[in-house]
Task: structure prediction
Amino acid sequence: MRSGFSIRSTVMLYTLAPMLVIATLVCAWFVNFRIEDLDEALNQRGISTARQLAVVSEYALLTGNRNQLAKLASTLLRREGIRSVSIYDSKRQLLTHQGPQPLEPGTLIASLGLNKSIYRTEHSFRYAVPVLLGADNLINDLSPAPDTTQRAGTQPLGWGVVELRRDSTESAKLWTATIAMLATLATIVLNFSLARHLTRRLADPVREITRAVHELGGGRLQTRVQVEGGPEIDRLQEGINTMAEALQRLRSELQQNIDQATEDLRETLETIEIQNIELDIARKNALEASRVKSEFLANMSHEIRTPLNGIMGFTRLLLKSQTSRQQRDQLQTIMKSSEILLTIINDVLDFSKI
Result:
């Protein structure tokens, strides 16, 4: 069954299509893995920062020192990626706030519970951690579980709320996606270059061999294939060149046979022509001899018939006269002999005409 694709198209398709699928899947997996890793890193940084805030603000909450709480919040705000810092007392009243107004503030009070909480918005992550007394606060800070349930009867001194910007993470995600796409594109371009080089090594020799075969089919048997390729191409090239040499040798021998046959035929025609000339001369000689013979016979016929007719005429006159019986018999004998002689002469003339 014939295919509508050339060797170049087939090799490019079978080489690029799987590579494109694999590169796309790897790129998607890498980007997704990196995004999850960035989100997890941001989440861990936010949890760690909120716990640090809960630990360092414990004493200031016990003493009600708002200035110290403000300094702590201001110091923490200087860290990269932190949007705002807020500290609430045990009655969920705001004691200090540093930074811009929190995003979606209506959900802020509801997130202040006995366990730490995480609230995600489109542009930020907000972490709320309860501030506990002494060992409870230390346990809350060191616990690896994201949602550690506090012991019964424990009442928080307050809450530390840290809001982190997602801009740096989004930029890192965009940079990761860009790098992954560029790496995928570079892989595809490299694979395309390799596939193109491979198709040239395959398609160019095949195209050259096809051209040579068409020329050989058109009668140009001096054509030879000169291509560089693998062992298979070399064997095919050698076979085609051997076939071309054999065909050229056969055609040369056939041409020699044709030339020899043509020469023999020419000599035969010359011989026939000479024979025809000789036959024509012989025919002319025969016609001339026949003409001379006819003329001779006509003359002889006239010369013989004239006296014979005279004899026969006078014999008839004598038979009409009165003669003796013996004379009549002699005249009749002369008459019969003359008629027989005339018949023989007529037969000889007729035979000579035939």
Summary: The first strand starts at residue 82 and ends at 89. The chain has a mean pLDDT of 79. The longest helix spans residues 231-320. The two ends are 79 Å apart (CA to CA).
